[in-house]
Amino acid sequence: MDDVEVRELRYFRAVAEELNFSRAAERLGMAQPPLSRAIRLMERRLGVQLFERTSRHVELTPAGNVLFAESAKALDAVTAAVRRTRRAARRPLVVAAKPGVATELLRRIADGHPDPVEIRLSGFGDQAALLRDGRADVVLLGGPGDHGDLDVEVLLGGPGDHGELDVEVLFTEPRVAALPVRHELAGRSSLTCADFTGRATPSWPDASAVDRAYWSGRDVTGGPVTPGPVVHDSAQLLEAVALGQAIALLPASVAQWYPRTDVVYRPVADATPYSLALGWPAGARDLRIARFVRTAVEVSEARPRPGAVPAG
Length: 312
Prior knowledge:
This protein is an alpha/beta fold and 312 residues long.
């Protein structure tokens, strides 16, 4: 935005969020008159009115609403750039992943990587946000994928957002059902997504409707998801399964990483495959990221492929 400073955008957003110049000035730690002058100067330079003002009321104009939406993205980009710049010279590469299969692979990648790596555990669906605001340099993204292509639009919240990232798919694998050892389906050699109909599946916090459908097999069969207990990582999920509180659809490698005597794994013939990918800021010039991606590809290519699903 020509002739608008970051400081002025922060002033503008404080007023827009408070809709009161006195409260905004207090929040910013400044007097009200300089704040009012700064907003008037910004309006003159932009050639638009940002606020409708009366003695009792402050309201955003249509132009103000546009600036409010656009300025959030601009300030996020500035914050991320500052964080990455400050960290680049003095700290390890930060890689974020959700606890589970991704972190097991990530440990192997970090061990084989020439640069220091800090692994940051994140919640379900948080990885892209960590990348966008600069708290992470690289993220591991897992979700629906087939033929080596990860559905990035699903992972990042819809069309358009994925343009912010470059993505390298590390592997794609089938999914399996995790069942309590004495479950009525445990004696079957293979299942289909229809077998999940009406059965509770674990719930991830803040999961979207698309996420819930994918992790319950409803993306294949349609119909409502039957929510089970809320879980935050693979270990907690498998405890819920073992206790008979839910059954789950999981990447096939989970059966190898997490063998248990109280849980059995069965192939699910028609389940949408699972892909794991690296994501990093589009156009990034940090050579450490390039080296990390190269190491990750080499390690993932050498990883043991999921074989026959254990009988339990």
